[in-house]
Design goal:
By secondary structure, the protein is of the alpha/beta class. The protein has 15 helices and 13 strands. A 6-stranded mixed beta sheet has the order 4-5-13-10-11-12, with helices on both faces. A 4-stranded parallel beta sheet has the order 8-7-6-9, sandwiched between helices. A 3-stranded antiparallel beta sheet has the order 2-1-3. Helix 9 packs across helix 11.
Length: 423
């Protein structure tokens, strides 16, 4: 596989196609390459990310924008007219004050950033919207992805909205609701026998061979990843333009966590928020916890694992951004924790029964890790904390189907009801 995929070849790229983005820059050596369908540095093979020449941006300008991620258009690699392009318009989801959950866990102030209300019910709509913009500007003919489920849903829906052909690849053992959610939007759902890492390798091979294919998390990954910054932007804005003292984020590839941190740093640099300390915490399932293992063993690198967990949306055994998650959590004084499948189920029920939010297994992982972080004194209960819920529980019903059910089955009589002891 070539280090730099260049198979999406537009004849021309219009001026301003990528907003105020200046170049793609290597996270490892700092080498810069032109904006385009590249994801690996030609000098050292390190990962590329978007670098900008930001204009002056005010809070008032942002507040005057649409109530979706495009209010942050000047801070994203998208054109000024992005809101006019057909897209799913994700973002600006609610930040919910979670007093009931806070009392249950012994926290003084807790917020849930609830991304389950996005168009396809997960945060993936954010990253896909940015990837779709790049694919369109680069002249792609096919919009595609390897996915653990939520991304396939988002890509298929966004492609349908934009009128571009979509092809999505998933592990064949993926939760049935997520498969159906994708197949509703596209006839090109491909189930692959293997883990997500196997699916991702196949996608990388296809991206290197097929011309005109934009794989959102492969050859347009730098643009795609920037969409996660909008979570950080929104949290800060919804808190009254300030940073939370602590934030707990689920870790699959690790991209979301690294981009929320990038968002906070950009807001500080632009003078939109005060430069206050914040701690970043990563959450993983024990059955797929390579980053947590590295953190706890103080390892300098991530050792890949074979996933075995109900949290399939987090089941990436060789996370691309894992090492950067380690760096951020260590730098900010946070941590990376993991929880068992039983604890994940309990986390789902805990959030549902305290705050009325039905989260999928990734959210159950994050809530359960929050609980564990408090119990192990790694997280300060006196500091304001945000936890991110990335998706809707209706997508992972099997995870709790055997755990919940009717409290009683009775005859239609008052005597039968009183016999249950519920009254």
């Amino acid at each position: 596989m070539s280090a730099v995929v260049t198979e999406v070849r537009p004849t021309t790229v219009r001026e301003g196609a990528f907003g105020h983005a200046r170049a793609l820059t290597c996270r490892e050596c700092g080498h810069e390459v032109a904006l385009g369908p590249s994801y690996a540095c030609p000098e050292c093979f390190g990962p590329l990310e978007v670098a900008y020449d930001f204009p002056a941006v005010t809070r008032e300008q942002i507040a005057a924008g649409p109530r979706n991620i495009w209010r942050y258009q000047p801070l994203l690699p998208v054109p000024a007219d992005i809101a006019e392009s057909p897209n799913t318009e994700p973002g600006f989801t609610r930040l919910l004050r979670a007093d009931n959950l806070a009392r249950e866990l012994g926290l003084e102030k807790l917020w849930v950033k609830d991304d389950s209300t996005n168009p396809t019910n997960s945060f993936k709509d954010r990253v896909v919207a940015c990837a779709l913009s790049a694919a369109r500007e680069l002249g792609a003919k096919v919009f595609a992805c390897p996915s653990t489920g939520n991304l396939a849903n988002a890509v298929a829906a966004a492609g349908a909205r934009a009128g571009i052909r979509t092809v999505v690849f998933i592990p064949s053992d993926l939760e049935r609701p997520k498969q159906i959610n994708s197949a509703v939007y596209t006839e090109n759902l491909v189930a692959v026998n293997g883990t997500y890492d196997d699916v991702n390798r196949l996608a990388s091979e296809i991206a290197g061979e097929e011309e005109g294919w934009a794989f959102v998390n492969v050859n347009v990954r730098p643009f795609y990843a920037e969409g996660s910054k909008t979570l950080g932007f929104e949290i800060a804005e919804q808190l009254g333009w300030r940073l939370p003292e602590q934030i707990v984020i689920p870790v699959a590839s690790g991209s979301q966590l690294t981009k929320v941190d990038k968002a906070f740093r950009e807001l500080i640099a632009l003078g939109l928020v005060e430069d206050t300390p914040y701690r970043v915490y990563g959450a993983q399932a024990t059955g797929c916890s390579p980053v947590s293992i590295a953190y706890k063993t103080q390892a300098p690198a991530i050792r890949p694992v074979k996933p075995d967990t109900i949290a399939k949306s987090l089941a990436i055994g060789n996370p691309a951004d894992g090492i950067y998650v380690l760096d951020i959590c260590r730098r900010t004084g946070g941590a990376v924790e993991d929880v068992t499948d039983h604890q994940i189920r309990q986390g789902i029920l805990l959030l549902a029964r305290t705050e009325g939010i039905f989260t999928e297994t990734a959210g159950g992982t994050t809530v359960a890790c929050l609980k564990k972080l408090v119990e192990t004194t790694q997280l300060d209960p006196a500091k304001e904390t945000v936890v991110i819920n990335t998706g809707m529980g209706l997508k992972t019903l099997d995870a709790v189907a055997e755990t919940v059910g009717a409290a009683a089955t009775i005859d239609p009589s008052y005597a039968a009801f009183t016999a249950t002891g519920i009254a």
